Amino acid sequence: MIRSLTVAILSLLLAASPALAQTVVIVRHGEKVSPNGDPDLSPAGQARARALAASLAGSKVSMVLATPLRRTQQTGQPTAEAAGLKIVPIALDGGAPAHAQRVAEAAREAPADATVLIVGHSNTVADIARALGDPAPEILTDCEYDHMTVIQLGGATPKAIHARYGAPTQAC
């Protein structure tokens, strides 16, 4: 029930965005089949990717950014397909802070009224959120997959909302 309310509130916020306020949604990739290498999403991760697309339905996503790794690509794919988009890969070169800056720059290049989805990793989402103006980004553990940060740009100061989507996960 709470998840449904979170998604409903998030949908209203995205739909009610001011015409020239860019909205950026940041998530971690879905659950993976293995902790090693470049694994695919597990069935739970695939379900999470579909839940992400459902939670963003109607928000007019105009850009999807992700790392080149399979799990981020597969998490963003249902949303990208629903919007008729291709995922824009952003390399992880230079470490998490450098990656976060490149992602933030790419997101800011989107039109002023765009909704941008960013799919990252547990060690990059906080840096990306901070680079986009979130003063208190959530720090994720390796077991948390259900966090979503929505940042509204375009005003004097960015506004960040921390929400959850899909099946609940617990910190480890």
Percentage of residues assigned to helices:
25-40%
- Please state the CA-atom Rg, rounded to the nearest Å: 14 Å
State mean pLDDT (0 to 100 scale): 90
- Strand order across the largest sheet: 3-2-4-1-5-6
Please characterize this protein's 3D structure.
With 172 residues, this protein is an alpha/beta fold. The protein is 36% helix and 19% strand. Helix 2 packs parallel to helix 3 (70-83) and helix 4 (96-108) packs across helix 5. It is built from five helices and six strands. A six-stranded mixed beta sheet has the order 3-2-4-1-5-6, with helices on both faces.
What attributes does this structure have?
alpha/beta, 6-stranded mixed beta sheet, 5 helices, 6 strands
SSE layout:
Elements: H1 2-15, E1 23-28, H2 43-56, E2 61-66, H3 70-83, E3 87-89, H4 96-108, E4 115-120, H5 125-131, E5 147-152, E6 159-164
Parallel strand pairs: 1-4, 2-3, 2-4
Antiparallel strand pairs: 1-5, 5-6
Helix pairs in contact: 2-3, 4-5
Explain briefly what this protein structure is.
By secondary structure, the chain is α/β, with parallel strands linked by helices. Helix content is 36%, strand content 19%. The protein contains five helices and six strands.
